Every structure is written in C-alpha cells, then in structure tokens.
Amino acid sequence: MKEFSWELFEQMPVIGIMRNIPQQHIPTIADIFQRSGLTNLEITMNSESATETISSLVKLYKGSLNIGAGTVCTIDDLEKALKAGAQFIVTPIINKKVIKACVSQNVPIFPGAFTPTEIYKAWKLGASIVKVFPATAVGPGYIKEVLGPLNHIKLAPTGGINPDNFTDHFKAGAKAVGIGSHLFPKNILESEDWVKLEEIYNALTAKYKAYIGDK
C-alpha cells in the first residue's frame, strides 16, 4: 500500500468527500481535483463500488493525492477499505476497535465526534485528527470554544463546510476541514460543466493560500 503523505495533507488540509458520485465522472473529477492543487480525497464506503474506486485512484495518483475511505463504521468496513488500498480512514462515529486497528497499523484515522467528551475520548484512543461532525450544527465558534481547554487536539470540522466559510474554521483553530457536496455540486456534475468545477477548485486553493499568506 502506498503510504499516506502528511506533507501532501498539510499542503492543502481540505478533504474532499465523494459520496455516491456517478462512476463515469470520477476519473475526470479526480484529475481536476489534483490539477487544482487539492490533495486529499475521501471515498465513502457507502458509495457504489467504493472499494474499486479507492483501488483505482490509489494506483493512479500514488504520491500526488492521498486517497482515503470514509463512513467506516465497523472492522469489516475497515478491512475492506485497507484491502482496497485506502491511505487514511474517516469515520462518522467513535468505534474503539477501528481506531485501535488503524493506530496499530500506522494508518491515519480521523474519527467522528461531537461533544468535548467524545472529542477527548477519540483523541486519547489515538486519533490522528478528530473529525467534528456535524459541524453544520455549531459553526466555527464551537471549534474555538472547544479548543480553549483542549488546545492540544487537532480538529477537522465536517458538515456544512463550503468554499465560502472554510477559512473561518481554520481561523477558529481547525487543522483541517472536510467538504462534501459543495465540492461536487450535483448540478455541475449533471451538466458535466468541468470548466466551472475547475473554477471552484482553483478559487478554493487560492483562498487557502491567501489565508496562509495573511497569517
């Protein structure tokens, strides 16, 4: 298995979450994604042909994209994802066995948690970064508040994050963000407007670089 690259991850700490994207569009989207300077792509395990997609993307983009598996809820999900070559694992929940298995195999694991207690528990179990989900319910202010007492924990808010508000979460102290449907707009995919999709991705990478430059 090609190893996960933290260097790539930190270069552009935005995780694009692909869920039920039409199979025929995935190669084109991945190409635009990588070309635009985005570096982390998550395929959810409840998508059609998820393992095949992960496997093909890992082979195609080894060294230029981190390809991960999302919506990993069980050890069975994890085994399938790792067998397919997933380089990082994302869960919507805390499953102690899944987290421990990833830690023992040195696979980055981003488990989902919501309350300060859950966030702390996920971190103590060995989370690489804790995915705060659903972030749409609370916004960047919540991230800032949680990091008051838990400033040693790395957080990646997910849910409701979009190209307009994602830097607000970085300003609040997040180390990464997960963005789903806003990076794969249904109307753009249906119309196959790849020029527009590239504009969205280029604008997002430019906004992040501007944010880093202003710090």
Written overview of the protein:
By secondary structure, the chain is an alpha/beta fold. The chain has one domain (6-210): TIM Barrel. The protein is built from ten helices and nine strands. It has helices at 6-11, 26-35, 50-60, 75-84, 96-104, 116-125, 140-146, 166-171, 186-191, 194-214, and strands at residues 14-18, 40-44, 66-70, 88-90, 109-110, 112-113, 130-132, 155-157, 177-179. Strands 5-4-3-2-1-9 form a six-stranded parallel β-sheet. It has a three-stranded parallel β-sheet with strand order 6-7-8.
Provide the CATH topology: TIM Barrel
Mean pLDDT: 97
Pattern of helices and strands: HEHEHEHEHEEHEHEHEHH
Helix count from the secondary structure assignment: 10
- The tally of strands reads 9
Radius of gyration, taken over Cα atoms and rounded to an integer in Å: 16 Å
**End-to-end C-alpha gap:** 36 Å
What is the CATH architecture term? Alpha-Beta Barrel
Low-confidence stretches: none
| Beta fraction | 5-15%
Q: Which strand order does the major sheet show?
A: 5-4-3-2-1-9
Summarize this structure as a short list of keywords or feature phrases.
TIM Barrel; alpha/beta; 10 helices; 215 residues; six-stranded parallel beta sheet
